[in-house]
Task: structure prediction
Amino acid sequence: MTSIFTVSVDSVEGSTLRGRVHVINPDVPSVPQGAVFPVSLLVDAWWHLDNGFLHNEDDEEHGGERYPFTDEQGQAITAGMRLKDEFGKLYELILGKQIRVTKDGYLLADDGESVLEPRRKAKDVYKLGGGSGYDGISHYAMTPGNAGEFSRCAAGIVNSYEISPYRNAPHLSEAAALEGPEGLDVWDGLELKEDYSFTEIPYAEIVVTVCDAGYLEHMVAGMRWDTTMTGHVC
Result:
C-alpha cells in the first residue's frame, strides 16, 4: 500500500509522546483528528518492530526510516511489553484477523499445515472481509476490522491528543490556529512536485498522552517510519 504519512518521534516522557506527522501524500492532505489516529500509529509502530521491519535507511533527504536499535532489540522490546497481548487485539480491530486456510478455504491450525477437525470452511465460521492471500506459510483469509470497538478502545487509551498548526505551510498556519486542522489541505497553494526534500514537506507536531505508560513502552525518541494508517479500519 502507498504510504500516507511519515511519523517522527521527538520524545517519550512517562505517558506522553511528542512527535511530528509529515504529510507526504497529497491524497490525504491533513493530519487526522480523534483518538483513533494516535492509537493506530502506536499499533503500527508495534507491528513494524514486532516483525523486524523498522530499521535505519540511508535516505535522509527523503525521510528514510530511523530506529536507534537493531531489529533484534526491537523485537525483544515488543516481546517484553506488558501490554503486548492488547496490541495484538488492537491490530486485529484495525486490519482484521488473519485466518489460515487451505487453498480450498478449510480452516488450518496456527502451524499453517494441519487441517482442523471437524473440517469447516472459514466462510462458514467467520465473517470474512474480502482480503486473502498467501504469506509463505499458508493461504489465509481476513476478517473485517471493527470500527466501533476500536473507537471505544482508543477513547479509553488516549487522555489527550493535540495537533499544532502546520509547519512548511505558512498560508495555513493562521487558519489552522483559528479553525483547527480538520479538513485543511496542507498542499493547497503549494506546487505538487516529487523533488521536495523531507525538510520542506508540510507537517504538524503532535502531543499524545495515554492512560498507561505501557502503551508507549516500544516508542523511543529518534524513531521514524512511514505509515498507511489514518485511523480508519479495514
